[in-house]
Amino acid sequence: MFSRKKLERNDAIEQAVASFFNLNSEPKHREAIVALADEKSLEKGKKQVIELSLPFCANSRLDALAAYLTEQMPSLNKSEIKVSYNIPITAAKTTPIPNVKNVIAVSSGKGGVGKSATSVNLAFALMEEGARVGIVDADIYGPSVPIMLGNPEAHPASEDNRTMFPIDVHGVVANSIGYLVDSESAAIWRGPMATKALKQLIYETKWPLLDYLIVDLPPGTGDIHLTLAQQVPLSAAVVVSTPQTIATADAKKGIAMFGKLDVPVLGIVENMSYFQCACGEKSYPFSKGGSAKLAQQFEIPVLGELPLSNAIREHADEGKPIVVFDPGNEASLIYREIAQQVSIKIGAELPQHALVTKHTQGNPELGIPIVNQQ
Ligand SMILES: Nc1ncnc2c1ncn2[C@@H]1O[C@H](COP(=O)(O)OP(=O)(O)OP(=O)(O)O)[C@@H](O)[C@H]1O
């Protein structure tokens, strides 16, 4: 009979992991990282399995993490490092959405700055990093997610004519008003009708277990935003802007609105930041540094700067998200970095839901079963 060695939490490994991911040294930012190891075998440099549980997803950095850990701690040299993700549930002040751990609003003050393109690619980037992700298109008046996902003719199935199943697209599940009614009908909805439609879309969709639900908001700071922030358990928001003053001025209103509604803004995604010609030279058609100034003012980070790129536009127009269809493209790599930062901030920096006990995967009271991931 073989008995499994008892593995103990190993503080030194946890600290090294936290420093690799540049986490703040405050204990609350580290405590969700759990490293289990048999300390005695570590001392002797024996081959063993280290079990690492992270509160965020980081597929693209696992090789670098393993290299960093063995460099910092040569005793890990012969060890196999097994990583799993245990993404926590963050603050839920209002009715939770069954099966959904974290809701991330993607917002912009001004229209046309690339909010939907960012929402869609952020969703796929989080999925590629190892999370279970859904996207809901809250842009009731101009839903563009179905086009960007390449399935504008799709229609969610229903078992009971009351609830619907989201549509699975390349591993992300989605729902949009665009799948349910034609665009002319939705465009004439006003106030209560639009907010009711949005709530139905969110609460009457049977989401599978999701680490993150991305909500692509309409531009501006109107009724829909207020409803969403007050009646849907938003974990955090990401604000998209171009660098030009007219866009950052509107983005500012959005950041201020989330501040008043107590929704943490994780940072700004600067879209159409620069244009890089084939010769390698960069130019700045929409001005330079606008988001950095805004970020400084609100003491939030710029999560990433995306180029004005034909490839981003073509993939969006063709319904083939660039992160999935051209993963090696510079823009895809930037989306992946943004996704990682979003995931790290939610997992290691935001307060977790009070009902979530430490290292608990889910919460039955929230309709989230306790299951083991990966
Ligand atoms: N970085 C980029 N480079 C080139 N084109 C882009 C980029 N980002 C987005 N686009 C294109 O710009 C157009 C507007 O983008 P998108 O629909 O994402 O903006 P939006 O802010 O969601 O707009 P709205 O909310 O007003 O509908 C789309 O055709 C999209 O493909």
Summarize the structure.
Binds and transfers iron-sulfur (Fe-S) clusters to target apoproteins. Can hydrolyze ATP. Keywords: ATP-binding, Hydrolase, Iron, Iron-sulfur, Metal-binding, Nucleotide-binding. The chain has 14 helices and 14 strands.
Count of folded domains:
2
- Helix coverage percent: 25-40%
H/E element order:
EHHEHEHEEHEHEEHHEHEHEEEHEHHH
Number of strands: 14
The biggest beta sheet reads: 8 strands, mixed
What is the CATH architecture assignment of the largest domain? 3-Layer(aba) Sandwich
General form: globular
Distance between the termini: 27 Å
Bound compounds, please? adenosine-5'-triphosphate
In CATH terms, the superfamily of the largest domain is: P-loop containing nucleotide triphosphate hydrolases
Calculate the mean pLDDT score and round it. 85
The name of the CATH topology of the largest domain is Rossmann fold
Gyration radius over CA? 21 Å
> In terms of structural class, how would the helical and strand content be classed?
alpha/beta
What top-tier CATH class of the largest domain fits best? Answer: Alpha Beta
Note poorly predicted spans.
Answer: 354-374
Q: Helical element count? A: 14
- Portion of residues in beta strands equals 15-25%
